[in-house]
């Protein structure tokens, strides 16, 4: 399994200019490749191969005066940009033919220097290295200062340098994890849990534990509003407007970082404590189009479930997802009586069949666990036979990439 470990970079002014030059060169090669394929399609010609694009857009272009500045950056960066185009078209055609799951992928578009994210990738061929002093040495850029928050478990296979909308630089290392080390690090446990995700409480566990929703966006709305107002008052094209735009981006980045950290801490805790976890398949994209859209986006359920997924796969845990139409809020978890749907303002109800008083969310979490075949009733009696937990090689993969690559910024740590 592959993970990404990201660390903050602090380039010097000259290094920042070199990175900006590399971002621009990679972007130009990417756009030239997209344009070449579009022209071939319009003229009913076969798409040019990766080798042909490399000779025309990199090797040949460096010899022309109008593209001579491509020689100022590492050739590996430009080659990886062409591979990104190849992967983008491969995903587009796979989605077009129904071979790729999930939301339909659009045709590759041109990149802009105003995009919120710029990136370049260095593979082993680029001969990048980590210096004895802990700096990241990149070809034709130099040794960049890195804020190491932890040690890399193995030698990385590649590094991607990213600049986000707030102007921050990050180095994202691709690491191949060691299954034996992961197993030793996370011993088996006999605990199982069902989780009911919500807005008032971010998560309610089947054991009755309630985890409040931090509501990072709601808490930062006043600060975000002021920053956005300051931006709107600046003249377009001015330096003050550029500074104000960075302030807005940094405010949003702080919210996103805090939410991501909360998701990582909670998902890690659940993986450590439980051998099997049951969750509900939420229609997040549908809920994000309702009047609760802002709260749904603020909760970030999709990101949290993705973290649970790859961490469960990495550490040999079982993550079970039940259908979104399972009546978890309508069924008594003690006797199984179905009492019908209830308005959202009903947070507590009494089962007419057995008289058990239920907290709506705790009852739903227990039913999620029961529907996954992991549960016992409130009185301790088994609802259904306990299943045999899947072995590591039988566990489900991450889902998005077929190779099981998880692209989260952090692993467990």
- Counting H and I runs of at least 4 residues, what is the number of helices? 11
Helices and strands: which structural class? Answer: alpha+beta
Helical coverage, percent range: 25-40%
Order of helices and strands: EHHHEEEEEEHEEEHHHEHHHEEEH
Question: How far do the termini sit from each other?
Answer: 16 Å
Number of strands: 14
Which spans have pLDDT < 50 for at least 5 consecutive residues?
Answer: 375-413
Radius of gyration: 25 Å
Shape: elongated
**Taking all residues together, what is the mean pLDDT?**
87
Strand arrangement in the largest pleated sheet: 2-6-7-1-5-4-3
The biggest beta sheet is recorded as: 7 strands, antiparallel
Strand content: 15-25%
Features:
disordered C terminus; 413 residues; 38% helix; alpha+beta; single chain; elongated; five-stranded mixed sheet
Describe the structure.
The chain has 413 residues and is an alpha+beta fold. Helices cover 38% and strands 17% of the residues. The protein has a 7-stranded antiparallel β-sheet. It has a 5-stranded mixed β-sheet with strand order 10-9-8-11-12, sandwiched between helices. A two-stranded antiparallel ribbon has the order 13-14. Strand 6 (158-163) and strand 7 (169-176) form a beta hairpin. Helix 2 (50-59) packs antiparallel against helix 3 (75-96) and helix 6 (221-232) runs antiparallel to helix 7.
């Amino acid at each position: 399994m592959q993970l990404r470990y990201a660390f903050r970079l602090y380039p010097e002014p000259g290094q920042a200019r070199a990175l900006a030059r590399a971002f621009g060169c990679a972007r130009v090669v990417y756009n030239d490749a997209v344009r070449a394929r579009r022209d071939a399609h319009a003229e009913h010609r076969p798409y040019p191969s990766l080798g042909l694009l490399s000779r025309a857009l990199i090797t040949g272009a460096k010899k022309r005066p109008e593209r001579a500045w491509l020689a100022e950056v590492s050739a590996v960066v430009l080659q990886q940009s062409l591979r990104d185009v190849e992967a983008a078209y491969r995903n587009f055609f796979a989605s077009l033919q129904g071979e790729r799951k999930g939301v339909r992928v659009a045709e590759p578009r041109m990149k802009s220097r105003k995009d919120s994210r710029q990136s370049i990738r260095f593979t082993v061929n680029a001969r990048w290295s980590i210096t004895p002093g802990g700096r990241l040495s990149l070809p034709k850029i130099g040794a960049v200062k890195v804020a190491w928050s932890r040690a890399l478990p193995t030698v990385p296979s590649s590094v991607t340098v990213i600049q986000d909308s707030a102007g921050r630089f990050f180095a994202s290392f691709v690491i191949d994890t060691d299954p034996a080390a992961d197993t030793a690090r996370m011993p088996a446990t006999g605990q199982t849990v069902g989780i009911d995700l919500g807005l008032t409480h971010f998560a309610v566990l089947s054991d009755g534990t309630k985890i409040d929703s931090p509501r990072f966006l709601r808490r930062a709305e006043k600060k975000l509003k002021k920053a956005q107002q300051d931006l709107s008052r600046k003249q377009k094209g001015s330096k003050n407007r550029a500074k104000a735009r960075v302030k807005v981006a940094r405010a949003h980045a702080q919210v996103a970082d805090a939410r991501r950290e909360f998701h990582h801490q909670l998902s890690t805790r659940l993986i450590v404590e439980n051998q099997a976890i049951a969750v509900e398949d939420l229609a997040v994209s549908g809920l994000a189009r309702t009047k609760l859209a802002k709260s749904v986006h603020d909760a970030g359920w999709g990101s949290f479930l993705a973290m649970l997924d790859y961490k469960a796969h990495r550490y040999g845990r079982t993550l079970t997802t039940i259908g979104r139409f399972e009546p978890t809020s309508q069924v008594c978890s003690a006797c199984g009586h179905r009492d019908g749907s209830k308005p959202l303002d009903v947070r507590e109800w009494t089962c007419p069949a057995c008289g058990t008083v239920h907290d709506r969310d705790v009852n739903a979490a227990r039913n999620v666990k029961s529907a996954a075949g992991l549960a016992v009733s409130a009185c301790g009696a088994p609802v259904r036979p306990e299943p045999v937990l899947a072995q590591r090689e039988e566990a489900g993969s991450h889902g998005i990439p077929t190779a099981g690559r998880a692209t989260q910024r952090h692993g467990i740590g």
